[in-house]
């Protein structure tokens, strides 16, 4: 699901003619959408391969989620 969201936000950035970067993509998504994504149910590999690389989360949020994902395993 996150891959689809990430793809949409990148296309939206292109449409708005803005740089495709983590903070910008997050702004395009909106805080409400980011807060409703169920990151903790992802596997550690999914999180690292997709979410972490997208840079949508801050470093602090990424760290918190990694701890959450690691504990869930």
Strand count, sense and barrel status of the largest sheet are:
none
Radius of gyration: 12 Å
What is the first-to-last residue Cα distance? 20 Å
Fraction of residues in β-strands: under 5%
Inertia-based shape: elongated
What is the fold's blueprint, element by element?
Blueprint: H1 2-15, H2 22-29, H3 31-36, H4 44-54, H5 59-72
Helix pairs in contact: 1-2
Question: Would you write up a description of this structure?
Answer:
The longest helix is centred in the first third of the chain and has 14 residues, at 2-15. Helix 1 (2-15) crosses helix 2. By secondary structure, the chain is mainly α. The protein has one domain (2-72). The chain is elongated and about 35 Å long. The protein has helices spanning 2-15, 22-29, 31-36, 44-54, 59-72. The two termini are 20 Å apart.
